[in-house]
Design a protein that fits this description.
The complex is a heterodimer of chains A (205) and B (187). Chain A has helices spanning 3-8, 28-40, 43-48, 53-64, 75-86, 94-106, 188-204; strands spanning 13-20, 110-114, 123-126, 132-133, 140-141, 147-150, 155-158, 175-182. With 205 residues, chain A is α+β, with helices and mostly antiparallel strands. Chain A is globular and about 45 Å long. The two termini of chain A are 32 Å apart. Chain B has helices spanning 2-5, 25-50, 71-111, 142-147, 164-168, 179-186; strands at residues 120-122, 133-138, 150-154. The relative contact order of chain B is 0.09. Classes of the chains: A alpha+beta (205), B mainly alpha (187). Chain A binds chain B through residues 4-5, 7-8, 43-44, 46-51, 56, 59-60, 63-68, 70-71, 77, 80-81, 84-85, 126, 143, 145-147, 158-161, 185, and chain B through 26, 29, 33, 36-37, 40-41, 44-45, 47-48, 51, 57-60, 62-69, 73-74, 77, 81, 179-180, 183-184, 186-187.
């Protein structure tokens, strides 16, 4: 964690876990769990969600770092909107389904990176001048000062934004690095539960 | 009294930071973040209270990626949110007053329907769910109109599904002020 960032947000943290995965289609049990979550989620849940402690904490942190959650939706509110528009949490693949289930159940977003594309530990820091997102051929420039998720070599994604091309989990990925951003106001237990839920779902498949 | 003459202060100059005194900007930023958190909580409550049918939150004017905000930027965020909260609460009060007026109108319609000919009050006007409405109509059509036999007719609620016709032109049958659209748009 960048020292300036840590001083401004003492409770901000990045929790990462690397584990073997086997991308592919979700099992019947995972699809059933998604259907169950879909049936338990209603319009009223979406409306009152922003009053719940964890989604509210992410909304507040968005405000604190210059994002507007009414324009750039927090992950859990984005999932809720998708549920309302599509009528269900649509099953996609093992990785995305595990991320969706843990997100909806806990409110804490988790992202997955291909561990083989990373160098050293992941961290959270402001981007430096001239840095680019990712290391592949399709890298994009990143404005200095933007908060990024970075390994020891370069940024691999903007905070709460898209991951850099080439770092996401691919069908041939063998090890994935899951990471969650703990924002002020979210107790550790919620983040741990999100990571545990996601890891268990990936392990079970 | 001589002492008073020597105590005049020159207030025309800008505030000066005295040597040895540092402005605690971090503390100020922390305080602003706490204020933003409180306003965000109040905004969430106002949003929930305004549903269904309330306006969807309008995003703030600023754009930009995630970054550490300085004191000025945090103040702008705080001020914009406070303005939005004030506006949301104002709209809630106005809506409550409009609904109270409509409830009063409905009571008068029920007491003296002849004085409120063809007036309609919907459930939405009253802040209630459903598609029902109260409509002052003449009994027996033109005969009741000529005879002055007026009564309040309560509609049976939402229209029935229209089968294939609904599927052919779904947009014609949906209200633009659908509370589910508002919920989806603002979730």
């Amino acid at each position: 964690m960048d020292s300036e960032l840590a001083e401004e947000f003492p409770r901000l943290g990045l929790i990462a876990l690397t584990m073997p995965v086997s991308p592919g289609r979700s099992t019947r049990a995972v699809k059933q769990r998604l259907r169950y979550l879909s049936s338990r989620f209603r319009g009223a849940s979406a409306v009152t969600m922003r009053q719940e402690p964890v989604p509210w904490a992410y909304r507040v942190f968005y405000r604190h770092i210059g994002l507007d959650p009414d324009r750039t939706r927090t992950p859990v509110e984005g999932a809720a909107l998708e549920r309302l528009l599509r009528g269900e949490f649509k099953a996609q693949n093992r990785i995305d389904d595990a991320l969706t289930i843990s997100l909806v159940e806990t409110g804490v977003p988790i992202w997955a990176l291909d561990a083989s594309t990373l160098e050293g530990e992941l961290g959270l820091r402001p981007a430096r001048a001239g840095e680019r997102l990712g290391r592949g051929e399709e890298t994009a420039s990143v404005t200095a000062g933007r908060l990024v998720i970075a390994d020891e070599q370069s940024p691999v994604g903007e905070l709460f934004g898209e991951l850099a091309p080439g770092h996401g989990v691919q069908p041939e990925t063998q090890d994935a690095t899951l990471f969650a951003v703990r924002v002020p106001g979210v107790p550790d237990i919620h983040v741990e539960e999100a990571m545990w839920t996601c890891a268990e779902l990936l392990r079970a498949t | 009294m001589e002492l008073m003459d020597h105590t005049r202060l020159d207030v025309s100059t800008a505030p000066v930071v005295l040597p040895g005194i540092e402005i605690d900007e971090r503390g100020a930023r922390r305080s602003l973040r706490e204020q933003i958190a409180k306003i965000e909580r109040d905004l969430a409550s106002a949003f929930v209270e305004s549903c269904p049918g309330g306006p969807a939150p309008v995003p703030l004017t600023r754009r930009g990626g995630p970054r550490l905000l300085d004191l000025g930027e945090l103040e702008r965020v705080r001020d914009e949110l406070a303005d939005r909260l004030r506006s949301s609460r104002g709209e809630l009060v106005e809506r409550a007053e409009r609904q109270a007026d409509k409830r009063l109108l409905l009571e008068k319609m029920l007491l003296e329907p002849g004085r409120y000919r063809f007036v309609r009050v919907s459930n939405a006007d009253l802040g209630e769910g459903g598609c029902g409405s109260y409509h002052v109509l003449p009994r027996l059509g033109p005969i009741g109109m000529l005879a002055g036999w007026w009564h309040v007719k309560v509609s049976s609620g939402c229209p029935l599904a229209m089968g294939s016709r609904l599927a052919a032109a779904p947009d014609q049958h949906r209200s633009s002020a659908d509370p589910w659209d508002a919920a989806a748009a603002s979730a």
